[in-house]
Amino acid sequence: MARRILWASLVLTPVVLVARFAFDAGATTLFLLSAAALIPLAWLIGEATEHAAEYTGPGIGGFLNASFGNAPELIIALFAIADGLPLVVRGSITGSVVSNLLLVLGAAMIAGGRGRLDARSITLQVGGLGAAVALLLVPSIPGWHGSPNRHTLMLVTIPVALALLGFYLFLTIKNLRIHHERERVEAAPHAWSFRAALVALAIATVATAIVSETLVHSLTDFGHAVGLSEFFIAAVIVAIVGNAAEHGGAIVIARRGNTTLATEIAITSSLQVAVFVAPAVALLSLLFEHNLTLAFRPVEIATMAGATAVAWIVTRDGWSKRWEGFLLVVCYLGAVAAYWFS
């Protein structure tokens, strides 16, 4: 019954488009409709990823999910840059890294309970994430004094962005080789074909990008109506909603007992945001009137570094435990409080 409801709920995506373009619905209506539409899309991405992982194994399956799931994040960031909102973009990048490491990973551990993790893969990725946060200090520290959007910081951002993209390529190749060598899988009889799973992922990703873009355009007015700051909206609401597909997908997969794939999704997604989405948006912003420097605020650097450290502590033994999941969620609430008071 639940699956039938989720399949039927996919109709909410065209409903959002009709409400926006045909009826010119208000910001609150669009926000609520878009948020509701992301729920079945999250389920579909999780479903398609799990079927694709029947052929690739959990490691490569997690990479596929993170890659498709982060496409809307990249698109949303470019829309925000075009609108001249670099603070929103940096806040959403920070919130994405932190929410994936703490909220999504924690929720997946709670949903899945005790289960095995791929410690070698996670250690490589968490270590890479820590190195990326350290590299972001190069443009960030000068940005703590004066405007973080000044041209000189953009000149510092360009080589840092190129280094991050090269680092991402290295980590991706190394991690995929690890999984290719270790994971030998045979698809279950009930699994979708690999092509069908990829097509479903692609369609769901495009739909998620459209719905997320609509939701982001309604977020500012909605946030002002309820009295939230622009930074808080970006770091918490935009980050969670922009990654709703991965969030929901990881939890659904964990509930089915596949904690290895669920944790791979959360960790890989955080890594991709830090070492691919952030530098890619920074470099692409050179094509726009407004540029994006990678000069993050102290609270942003601190929460990304802290989330990375906590995630490494709870995953280094190669096991998922429910109490560790609750610990991660509590740490996320602490980060949200820091964003609120900052």
List the helices and strands and how they pair.
Blueprint: H1 2-9, H2 12-22, H3 27-56, H4 58-82, H5 86-112, E1 115-116, H6 119-143, H7 151-182, H8 194-226, H9 230-242, H10 244-255, H11 259-284, H12 298-315, E2 319-320, H13 322-341
Q: How many domain modules?
A: 1
Strand content: under 5%
Fraction of helical residues: over 70%
Runs in which pLDDT lies below 50 for 5 or more consecutive residues are: none
Tally of contiguous helical segments: 13
What average pLDDT do the residues reach?
84
Global outline: globular
- Structural class of the secondary elements? mainly alpha
Could you give the count of β-strands? 2
Using only CA atoms, what is the Rg? 19 Å
CATH class: Mainly Alpha
- CATH homologous superfamily grouping: NCX, central ion-binding region
CATH T-level topology: A middle domain of Talin 1
Assigned CATH architecture: Up-down Bundle
Largest sheet data: 2 strands, antiparallel
How many angstroms does the end-to-end distance come to? 44 Å
Largest sheet: spatial strand order: 1-2
